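re: that complex we talked abt at group meeting.

here r the seqs, copy pasted straight from the sheet so there may be weird spacing, ignore it
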Amino acid sequence: MHPGMVVVLQSTTYPGTTREVLLPKLGAEQGLRVGEDWFLAFSPERVDPGREDWTTANTPKVIGGITEACGEVATIWYAGAIKTVYPVSSAEAAEMAKLLENTFRMINIGLVNELAMMCERLGVDVWEVIDAAATKPFGFMKFTPGPGLGGHCIPIDPLYLSWKMKSFNYNARFIELASEINTNMPRYVVSRVMEALNERGKALKGSRVLILGAAYKPDIDDVRESPALDVIGLLQKKGALVEYHDPYIPHIHHETDGWQMDSINDVMESVKNADAVVIITDHKVYDYRAIVDSAKFVFDSRNATRPFAKDHENVVRL
Amino acid sequence: MHPGMVVVLQSTTYPGTTREVLLPKLGAEQGLRVGEDWFLAFSPERVDPGREDWTTANTPKVIGGITEACGEVATIWYAGAIKTVYPVSSAEAAEMAKLLENTFRMINIGLVNELAMMCERLGVDVWEVIDAAATKPFGFMKFTPGPGLGGHCIPIDPLYLSWKMKSFNYNARFIELASEINTNMPRYVVSRVMEALNERGKALKGSRVLILGAAYKPDIDDVRESPALDVIGLLQKKGALVEYHDPYIPHIHHETDGWQMDSINDVMESVKNADAVVIITDHKVYDYRAIVDSAKFVFDSRNATRPFAKDHENVVRL
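got the structure back, here u go
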């Protein structure tokens, strides 16, 4: 630590981290006074990977200092690089704002995932329902169901808050529920695949299953926390012969579960040979019509086959 | 029922109502064939009371028929009066779309209500946190906490879906949780008022409490399901001497709980005399600065006092 230094934590974390963890660790050494000799603030990252309309430079930046002076110094510092800075009264307020943003997403994805499960029982097309609701021009925001949460933010960050609240004897119920529902989605997808194969007189055990897409969202090469990992693992445990293809992820090494796999080379060849093709990530590069035309059976967890799913008896959507 | 008649249900209801309840009831009498001799569809209302930018005429209208012909006839019929019609494949899809819209609101209000309770334990200003999160220009929608849900839609409609799902042995967990949290908010508000009075050395029992605003949202005269009713009832049960003022609601008659009350006449006189003023509805007509300046103590469940709350030790916000 040098006198005059400005330290800003940007990683999402539980409320209180900046003050309770960073401040004593960084400031203790030389006896420097925070807010006078050095400055400490929290200012969350707000990047949506792959997005081009909102970047670091034009996305408003929330900044909260450990002291008023810390907030002021950090705000001046950021104002040089970022179009809109938004100071709040404390590091904790900034920490909580970021947690709210991610919790909002996690919960709303949990809601539509539960909606998908309800619609299945009701015999209603969940994708049609969501698109219809999304025509409401106010008071609604569209989220879509899927095989589970992925990436290193949305599935994990809200659990920091949930963990912190336990020390206040408070059970963060929405976070716990959304986590439970979202974490269960790979299992739900596998059970739907097994049911659909069963209807076709086939056991999942011994069936050839091709997973299309392993990244946690389309058109990126990030497999962190991807539901594809869970789906592959669960299918294997039930005795399916699993292959996967992802143009952006040539190899998966799942250390904790102890398996690895290479992306297959010839997609269409594998599509033809598979007993079930399971779309996990709706990469744009795939020719979904050709896939649906060639496959014996497709389970589509992303509604990628929408335009032609209705004419094909071999397609089942989430 | 006359031949050629078009019947459209617009009230929000559980999925299946149009087909399972209306169809047999209306069609059975004369043996008319639905989709040929008469037409039945569901097309939900989408009115936000008090709103002027989006009206019935310019808000897209979702329409789902009992048969394809029913949907087509109803769509043609509405297209004469409404700018955008949005046909879906069934009455059930239209029913579910409306339930999703209202469930989305109920759940997100539940989330920020829970956030308010968490922020209180963490010592963070929930309103500041929400405003900071709302500076995110994508992927976030702002909802605000409050003393509980009101009106005849948001608190009730999602429970139709929850009820229906029970017949499928499915527990609609998000709806149940949001309902539990939102329904508890009046109780939470009363406990916060009691705590704040206690800190000032006063018992709630025997204290004069003035409720400001009884309508379920600002600047309207609708008291249906308003949390003010619950807050008043709970305060009375704990022995408070409760008065209320609402410029739009001169009289409340709570039939099920067996009490009635008139709105007081002189707001500022009552504000001065009250041991606690509790803001339940943030009607625009109130002079919040004058109220805060005159009151012994204000509990603000709507952040109506924001601009001057920080300078006043006698204001506690949700």
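couple things i noticed - The CA atoms of residues 76 and 85 of chain A lie 9 Å apart. DSSP finds ten helices and eleven strands in chain A.
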